[in-house]
Amino acid sequence: MSMIDLIKQRRSIRAYRPEIPPRELILECLEAASWAPNPTSQQPWQFIVLAGKPLQAVCRAIKENFKPVPGPQVVPINPVTQEMLDRRKKKHFSEMMEFLKAQHYDMQSAADGNFRFHGAPVGVIFGVYPCKDQNYLKSTVAAMQNFMLAAWSRGLGTCWMNAVSICQEHIKRELKLEDDLILVDGIAVGYPDPDSPINKIPRERLPVEAVVRWMDT
Ligand SMILES: Cc1cc2nc3c(=O)[nH]c(=O)nc-3n(C[C@H](O)[C@H](O)[C@H](O)COP(=O)(O)O)c2cc1C
């Protein structure tokens, strides 16, 4: 499969088979993650692989402490742009709900999935030590994307778990992680359940021309 086809085929997986993927396979994908571009090769990240009891403990910490908080407001928001993005989000959610309803999918379990790594047998937390040049977050997100693509190429599904950054203080306490380690987010990992409707929600992207500006004359 070409790299571009792989990128387009990767999708967020929100229902998993119970088998734990072999450690070597996860390590292979994490090694691919570590080849992400990063500031002056400082490789400031840490990859924390969770399964079994530690994963359950993190899920518990999330369930007990989750609050949907907006991210830090670093730049002023243009209300017109915000409205456009809100419209896209609403369209995405309503199409997703309509699809799942038609499949008689249990909506509550779909929502609860966010508190339990969508039932994946493995969760990986991507942490990073902050460094002075402010590039640490960017490089860790690049590593996360590498990881998801590598996983997909090896038959593993993944889903980004935003609840990890939201509940990071509680998770760090639970796992006895250093205070200065920033938990960028988590990624659920496992073999996709091929029959679950939640893994079949139609996906789309805007035509790329809608977001490209050529400035070449
Ligand atoms: C920063 C970020 C946070 C996300 N958080 C969650 C999450 O908490 N739960 C979830 O199910 N999906 C989460 N996602 C996945 C997106 O919902 C998903 O990528 C998007 O709907 C596009 O679908 P696709 O990944 O199948 O192309 C997140 C994605 C990103 C980039």
Give an account of the 3D structure.
It is built from eight helices and four strands, in the order ααβαααβαβααβ. The chain is α+β, with helices and mostly antiparallel strands. The chain has a single domain (13-67, 82-211), classed as NADH Oxidase (3-Layer(aba) Sandwich), CATH 3.40.109. A four-stranded antiparallel beta sheet has the order 1-2-4-3. Helix 2 crosses helix 6 (136-153) and helix 3 runs antiparallel to helix 8 (168-175). Bound molecules: flavin mononucleotide (FMN). The site of flavin mononucleotide has 10 residues, from strand 3.
Summarize it:
This protein has a single domain, classed as NADH Oxidase (3-Layer(aba) Sandwich).
List the keywords:
217 residues, alpha+beta, four-stranded antiparallel beta sheet, 8 helices, 42% helix, binds flavin mononucleotide
User: What's the average pLDDT?
Assistant: 95
Order of helices and strands: HHEHHHEHEHHE
Stretches with pLDDT under 50, minimum 5 residues: none
* CATH H-level superfamily: NADH Oxidase
The CATH class assignment is Alpha Beta
- Any ligands, ions or cofactors bound here, and which? flavin mononucleotide
Number of domains: 1
**Structural class by sheet pairing and helices:** alpha+beta
At the third CATH level, what is the topology name? NADH Oxidase
- Radius of gyration (Å): 18 Å
Beginning-to-end CA distance, first to last residue:
36 Å
Helix content: 40-55%
Measured by DSSP, the beta-strand proportion falls in: 5-15%
Q: How would you sum up the global shape?
A: globular
Sheet bearing the most strands, described? 4 strands, antiparallel
